[in-house]
Structures are given as C-alpha cells and as structure tokens.
Amino acid sequence: MSIDSHYAHPEALVTTAWVAEHLKDANLRIIESNEDVLLYETGHLPGAVHIDWQRDLQDQIIRDYIQPEAFASLCVRDGITPETTCIFYGDKSNWWSCYALWVFRLFGHEKVKIMDGGREKWIAEGRPLTREIPKYGPVSYPIPTVRRDSEIRAFYDQALAQSRSGAPLIDVRSPGEFKGLVTHMPEYPQEGILRGGHIPGAHSVPWKQAVNADSTFKSAAELRKIYQEDLGLQPNQEIIAYCRIGERSSHTWFVLNYLLGFSTVRNYDGSWTEWGNRVSAPIEKSI
Amino acid sequence: MSYPPRLSAIINLFSGLNDAEKRETLIAYDDLASAQEPRGWEQFHLEDTRKDEECTDTAALFLRIDDEGKSHFRVTLGSQVQTLTRAMSTILCMGLDGIPPADILAIPSDFIPKIVGAELVMIRSQTVYYLFTRIKGIVNIWLQRERAATLQDEQPVNH
Prior knowledge:
The structure holds two protein chains of two kinds.
Chain A: E1 13-14, H1 16-21, E2 28-32, H2 39-42, E3 49-50, H3 68-77, E4 85-89, H4 95-106, E5 112-115, H5 118-124, H6 149-152, E6 153-154, H7 156-165, E7 169-171, H8 175-179, E8 203-204, H9 220-230, E9 238-242, H10 247-259, E10 264-268, H11 271-275
Parallel strand pairs in A: 1-5, 2-3, 2-4, 4-5, 6-10, 7-8, 7-9, 9-10
Chain B: H1 5-15, H2 19-31, E1 46-51, E2 58-65, E3 71-77, H3 83-95, H4 101-105, H5 111-116, H6 118-123, H7 125-154
Antiparallel strand pairs in B: 1-2, 2-3
Helix pairs in contact in B: 1-3, 2-3, 3-7
C-alpha cells in the first residue's frame, strides 16, 4: 500500500515496504520509540536504534525536555548528523515515534519521517526483527542554537489564553478521560492527577480517530472530514493539542501539521498532568 | 516474611543483577510467556479474562487447584500486552506454582521491586504490580466461593 499523495506532506511518511528496501542506506537512521519500555530489546528492525522517551528525551531533574547539548550528544550516540534522515517507528500506532519526531523538530532537525503503521504493521507483514544492537561510527552534530518551543510547543499560559479566547483546543484523550470519568487508562501508570475533566472549551477528538485498524494513518480525505468538515478547524488557525503527558497529542500534532498542512499547531506537553493538578486552573466535566 | 521457595529463587536471581542485567533477564522471562498458556487438556476452576479499553490487550488468567489444595496458574496474553507484564506472567506462574491459595494472599508485593529494579518500578508503577494484583484477586474469589460452599454444607437441614 502506498502513501496517500493527497496529504499535505506525503514525504513525511514512508511505507514498511520502503523501509525494508532502505534498511542499509547510509544517510538514514531508523529509530524505534515505544510505550513498552522493554520492547526494543525483544526485537527491532535491523539497524534500528532505540530512543527512550523518558530516559533520552526528558531532563531528569526539571520537568522539561533535554537541553540542546544533550540533544547533540544523543544524535552523536546514535550516529545521526544534521543530514541524516530519521525514520521513526514504534508501538501504539506510532504514539511515541511521533513524540520523538516532535522533539527532534523542537531542536530543528529537518529530515524526519514516520514509518506508516509502525511496529505493528512491520510485524504483521512478517518482516524481520533482530536483537542485535547496532553501533554507528563517530559523527558530529552541532549543538542546536535554539529549541523551537515558541513554534511548536504550548505552555500552560498559552493553553489558558486559548481556552479563554475560544480558540481551538483539541483534547485527544479517550472519551472517558475527557468526560472526567477516569484520570488515566486502565493498567497504565497513574501520574497522580487530582481531578478528571478537560480544559474549558476543548473539543474531544481522540487520537485514535486518525488511524486505521492496521495502525496506518487514515487517508487525507478521511482526516479532512474529521478535523475540518466535522470539527471546523481551519488550516491557518492557531491550534493547541493536548492529552495526558503529550505523547498522544504528538500524534495529532503530526496529523494536523504534516498530513493536513495546518500552519500553527502546538503540542501542550504539560497536558492534563499539569492542568488537572494546577492550583486555580479551571476545568470542565461532561457526562 | 519468607517467600515461597520457587519465588524466592527467582528473587535471589534478580537481586544480584544490576539494572541492565535485570532488563536482559526480564526479556528471557518474556520469551517464556507463551509457555505459560493453558494446555488443551487442563481444566480450570476459575478464569478471569479482561480487555482494557484503549491501551492494552487481553490478559486472561486461569486458576487450577489440585487435589492437594495447591494453586497452579496459566496466563494468556494478547500481542499488545507490554513486555514487562509478559515477563511478570512467567515469573508469577513459575514462582507461585504449587502454593496454597491462602498462602498466596499472604505474600506481600514488596518482592516486585527486587525483581524489576527501581527504575522500572518508578516509570511503570502500575504495570509491574498488575498481574500479581489480579492473581490475588482470582485466588480471593476462589477462597470466598470455597468458604461459601463450606458454610452451605454446614447448614442444618430442616425436615
């Protein structure tokens, strides 16, 4: 199956078949990023490196992403240069690979793509996995001069202003979380959220609406219907997406930004773990 | 408290490992997860199958109590179940095999951090305890049913 050419940026996706043919390309780095912390070690695409969203992308002291120096070190560790095309894939329909891609974009890494269908599709097609951990030769990666927080990331104050002004806020969590019936998903880490509900004025569009049963993204026409025709979003509107800790909203950010070509979409990574606990933050509940 | 011998052996195995070695060993137990599935000929006293709504797959737990009153567990896990849960299914099926139900309820969950390590407990606090909690749950149900059946047997018969 090929990539829908009607996406705004079809070049941001590659098929599993394409990846299988390019596993040994020198200018590519295949990167697995998962929800399941041990999954990479059970088997991964030949040559793929592992980026752990928590250990590698998060500052371990401050709730924030790593600083530019650490990002450059991460790239050097994995043999990535500014010219390397990074192909991200992972479990959970590519939640965490979209999250890792979004962090790479925070640091201005341009050449990023998602393997459509992720790990599930690769395995369903009977393609090979290995437990061999690759090692790549020494490379250099200049320390990025800036982290693009102001362009693609939203903070609490911006989300509050968006809520007050009635501008689009997209809550991509499950309906139960949006309604305030649950604060986390069953069998999932409880990040200690005190209140259930959503940001006032937010629209509920669970991330899952954007994917097919085989974890591939829905067609451009289907996505336009969900986000533009049904929800009424405009491509030039300023949009903030959020979830619980910013991983599922990275998925929606990827859809709106790369597949539908919306110009100003921000991921509020503080998401419900910040909003639901924050003193004096207003919430809404719905049944 | 002292743990059952088989569980104690597993705890001792992990206790001497650093975090990286613990992860490797957990993968080895994950590899054995499918061996914990029910055999065709086995009969069970209780089955507890659950499918979570969004993020996880089906986890089915089977309990058999043998003629000596000892517990035996089998687990069937969907393909999307996390590796850590799969590894824990092997560890618990092996470690708790042959333990009387009441004794299982008395086992504290403090052995789990010794097995998986502090890092994984911190980032997956729910996951690492998930199956053990469910095992205690199914054992508890079996014990309650046994008590209810015993009470019924002891009721005086009115003529």
